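thread: overnight batch results

M.L. [08:02]
morning all. the overnight job finished for the chain we discussed friday. pasting input first so we're all looking at the same thing
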Amino acid sequence: MKNILLVVIFSFILIVANAQFKQNIRGVILDSESKVSLPGANVAILVGDKTIGTISNERGEFELMRIPIGSYSLTVSYMGYEPYLMRNLELTSGKEKIVNIELTEQVHKVDEILIQAYKNGETRNQMAALSARSFSVKETERYAGSWGDPSRMAANFAGVITANDSRNDIIIRGNSPQGLLWRLEGVSIPNPNHFGALGSTGGPVSILNNNLLSNSDFFTGAFPAEYGNALSGVFDLKMRNGNNRRHEFVGQIGFNGFEAGLEGPISKKAGSSYMVNYRYSVLGLMNKLGFSATGSGVPEYQDLTLRINVPTKKLGTFSLFSIAGNSQIEFNETGNESGSYDIVGNARTQNGSKLGVVGLTHRFFPDSRSNVYTAFSASYQGVATKIDTVFENQNNKIFFGENNAETRLSGSSKYTLKINARNTLKAGVEFQRFGINYIDSISGEVFDPPVDGYINQLNTDEKNLDFWEGFGEWQHRIDEHLTFYGGLHSQYFFYNSTYSFDPRLSLSYQINSRSKVSLAYGKHAQLQPFYVYFTENYDFDTHQYLQTNNKLDFSQAHHIVGGFDHSFTENLKLKLESYYQFVYNVPVGSDASIFSMVNAGNSFHQDKVDHLVNDGQARNYGLEITLEKYLANNYYFLVTTSLFESKYRASDLVWRNTEFNTNYVVNALGGYQISLGEKSSIDINMRVVSSGGKRNLFIDLDNSIAKGYTVYDDSKAYTERGTPYFRLDGRAAFKMNGKKITQEWALDLTNITGHQNVFSTAYNNTTREIENVYQQGFFPMFLYRITF
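M.L. [08:03]
and the structure it wrote out:
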């Protein structure tokens, strides 16, 4: 009996080991400009020495069934269009591979064309000439130190500054992170991060779930006319559709939390689908179960992501999407560890944030050359903070409190017309109605001299803050080498009747099949964060409040960018970009001071400053170098170098370094994939980053000792750069395919060397010395994922 059992077990192992697990590749072929489906396109992959192919149907759909799992290159050809090559299409047993492919129509028909139409890293938006690239979900997973966060992944790109380990703010070319525009499914959205402050665009943990994202675009300057109300860059995110043929499940535990996701068809016949995903913080759940070992400061957060896609035969495609997140944390500080206020020895800080976005989109095709994309959305963002004492058996005294919320209703429509292979036109409008409810106050005891009671920094309730945007743009392919892009963006803020007209122009010249040069200009404008307009000024003599920032204009900027791209091989590319930005109309103090909004936006709480005027200026210029080897022959690498200057002038009329002027950033990352037969693989990834040190305000030690609290010397603000920033990250992942299940185990090691990177400097009145506040040390994180 024992021998029979051994034979059965051994036979089962042999069957599994020799089983050839298979999976399907499906998708749709579209025209890149009009988004119209292309029937009759030839789709093929090479499996061993055999080519497997198919033809797209009348709806542009194709499917390659029962392909052995592995990594493939997929080619698409269609008469009158440039050939398409998609590399590194990874097929696993646990999930069908569904891809959307967009082809570009040829300007001239030629007898022979080099197949290089799929240019890795180029954007989905065809109006972008340079300072733009796309990213894939795979990159957010593969890059060491990214933790599946699109923002942290983008920190590897040229022009993006790594500044703060505790937050994922995207600081582009020395600009404030407030200058970034977040868009999801064509809809402008609030800060999509847990613990995100109003007026900021970053946070410690992203609400965006990379398991539900599709290839998306990232812009770092002179972006197309379609995008407005931004000064530095745009993150234009797209969600994928759920599987419309079969139900699939993903379970995961990692940095972003415990996670469960489900997707599948609503109606197989109609091709409709759904996706839903829920996450809960790992430390938060452990704390609720009584296993917390971290004391105070346990982050608790949860988020939900949803998408429903419903195509119709005659009425176009409808999609419903939603993201929502809730987060809270509490810190207890005692004695000399308390850093909230000098007047209290024991303090408790409670902070929480909420975000909700829901949107309905519709794409309709009036004819074979055009489409109309319409979107309606509603969003909510709220932040609540309280700082009080933590004495037992006493009435706790509150020193600071805020309960601020913003709502937004939005409607937009965009029309795209592909006139012919040479000319494409786009035009669109968007109307947004904001509502705000702010209450923000601070104890009068923190002022010098102290004041009885509480002083409001914000106290307003505005319902109808209306904002309008419109754009028109034109792409003209002069010939097969030269392409012109032109457009105009306009915006109007009804509250104080401020407006801006912003032209965008660019040229791209394809020197030959390997090299391209580009030149772009863009004028850009952005609203101030709403809390700035409604900051309260308290008159200590009359004890009255006055709002002094209501009439502020947009901050504005001119961008000029030149670029050169050269492909050494189909997998190795060099990219050079040089830029100059002049930023003006920046809010600064009406009296001589060093304050400027160019330094705001990268913290958990924003300063409320009154009596601001649009007299500030800034200038950013630099050179960026990118050398990238795309994944082929089992390895890839990306090396980026940014050399730059970032200066600003406030109301004291002195040109200074901005807080973000680290002068240089060097990123180098790469990885190697080790195949363990047909069913398993190991990925080894490394990343190293080095940059100039962070700039901080200058602490006057002698005066601080004399007065017993921190005193700054504004004449030396941001003059000194801290010690250089350095971080080495690593990631090892093991992936195993079963018959219908794929499992992955990964270990992320952040700051492997434990390098002490300085975040800021602070005066300690106990030791009477200036001390460094350090960033994150060595931090390991485990991930497990299962899909079936």
